Amino acid sequence: MSLGEKWGVLRDTFEPIVVDREDDVYHVTDTLCELYRNRRQLRVETTGLNYRLSVPFAPHLFGSGKTTFCRSYLELVQRFHETSLSSFASDASRKEFLDKLREAVLLYVDMRHLEPTDPKEKSLKWAVYYLIIKTACLQVGIPMMRKTQAYETVEMEALNLVTLLRDILNMRTDQFLLVAFDEVGVLDTRGQYFDLEVNDGRIRPYNDFFGILWELCLEDNVFFIVVGKSKGLSIKNYVASVSKVLLHFISLSPLNSSSIVEFLEKSHLKVQTQSRVCDILCNPSFSVNELAEALLEYTGGVPGLLTRAVNMLLNYVQTRGQSFGSKDECLSCMKEDGFRTVCSDPFVTRISTLDEDTRSLLDMLLMMALYRIPFNVNDRLNSGSYLFDAVTEMGLYRHPIDMNTFQVLFPKVFIGIFEELTSLSLLERILLGSLNIEPVDCFFASKCRVFEGIVALRLVWILSSKVRNEFRELLGRLSAIWKDMKLPINGPSPLHYMMSVSHGEARSESNKERKTYASNEWNEIIHGALCFDKVYIPKEANSYSPDIMFKLQSPVKLKFLMVGVACKGRWKSEGIGWSDIIEEAKKFLKPVYDQVLSQALEFYHCMLIIVSTKLALNVANELGNQSRCYTSGMLIGGNSFTIPPNCELVILCESDVEMLIDREILNGLERAFSTSDRPVLKNFGLGLVQRVRHSFLSWQ
User: Fold this and answer.
1) Using only C-alpha atoms, what is the Rg of the chain?
2) Which residues, other chains included, contact 84 with Cβ-Cβ below 8 Å and sequence gap of 6+?
3) Residues 506-525, mean pLDDT to the nearest whole number
4) SS3 letters across 546-573
5) Which helix (H) or strand (E) covers residue 73, if one does?
6) Hey, which residues does 564 pair with through a beta bridge?
7) At what angle are helices 257-266 and 288-299 packed, to 10 degrees?
8) What superkingdom does the record give (predicted)?
9) Euclidean distance between CA atoms 593 and 606, whole angstroms
10) What is the residue-wise DSSP string for 491-514?
């Protein structure tokens, strides 16, 4: 089957159902209720926050489900009123509001149809009013009201407009009218056609627009939802500072695995309406849970991407007349360049037209995605730009950790599009390749791993560089086995992230010597890592040992060196002691020897490198404040552990650690991790992340 036959024609073959919007529905309902309760106060001239208009507002994220959410909000209220909304109606007034909301009429207004309108072509207010009137006429299927007739009827008065709308829509005066404005981002370009208010020497069309809504909300039983502006945080903050409007973000977060399962089980084909999507795509040996994991892997749970990917898979399965038999078979389809190109096609316009300032942020956002450095909603790139908005401008997504904290989400189907950019740096290519390899649950499960990530990426350069470097020479002086290995390895490659298959108990103070992996699992991991010379960083770097692994090979004889790197970020005064070092050795050197090396001593060797930000005083004294290599048969930690045959333990002194991470970056990491075990960008400081970026670029 050719590319054109396999992925070239995309047909909408199923009816997607809206899932996992309980939190969004609750928060929107709560915001609308705030207006319901405070409408009388809005009519009072005051600057108090309690007297400001509250409007639910969803900044633009292409494919986030914002339009679907607008159109289906009242349907979702009906669906959730006895479940997630039951706690909302905790008192009589809120219950009364919810009961009336369930009888509301929704008017969906597409702002892309906004245009200068007779007889007041320069008036944004009249253009918005007439667009609402025209939309209402279309919604009930009556002839369009003439512009002059509408103008004479409304006379630019909010009360007259609301009265006219109720007449057109055949509504009672006490019935709620909910107007949903979509694609308000058109004001960026169409605002120039209107006479707008000038503030601080600038024209800000959104301030005028929300001023129009504020006037309408003075009328009883009228409510608004607004979506679709890319620089949403800038708009929110400015509107809050100069007007009587407070915008409340609708998060519209990507779906998780369980929500994708629900999506697949409850969505049906358009023609065969009794056929569930999951039954068409999965045979008995391939579960819907595995399908959901595969889709999450490549779409990031972004609803628009998910729906498009499912349509493509359905087209393929129906064309060949056979369901997928395994997760690997399904993933192999989604890995194809043709699948990624067609799936991401509607999403790439923004990516292909990036301006230079936005384009320059790519490597930093890639690092934040890969190392999972969360950022706060108000983190700034500079005085006029927010990181929250920059992620959207780049065409990426935000995965919420909580209401005010996010991670950069990079759907895998986008990676091929970015890789086609001709101006990519080597650093960007490595980061993109690493994100492409990373298992998806690394992103959704593990904590900030910037320390391990910096060391791993630095090792990629050190091992592949054709230029002499101090760190390789240091290890060559410390270890005769290392000196025998072939360096450099093949050119700089992505970090290869490994799935952890640990079934051990969670680490605790009383269980420090737990076995990290079962015997057969370790064999599988070690043999897998020995297959090729690339740097691995396992999932859950804070819980499993080692944090980084790679393999080297002798150029003249069949000899292999398996290297594990344990990154011990210690930010307290006591530093890493012998008990910590022995724990790492027992979790890596001993099981590797027992399960692999003992059967092939002639060919295999193993080295564990301890990279610590701070050594305990007794460890530093024994090392003589210099790095040291302990070889087979040597005793460490007061003779409490013996280095196994064909194994070596290298402990780097603090000054040699700075060959991997310079002192300023280490100090910044110390400041960040001393305040939280999951620091956010604010803890690091934007300057530190930029310094990490510059340190990588200096090695290219």
Assistant:
1) 30
2) 22, 23, 25, 26
3) 44
4) CCEEEEEECCCCCCEEEEEEEEECCCCC
5) helix 66-80
6) 549, 608
7) 120
8) Eukaryota
9) 8
10) S----EEE-----SPPP-TT-TT-
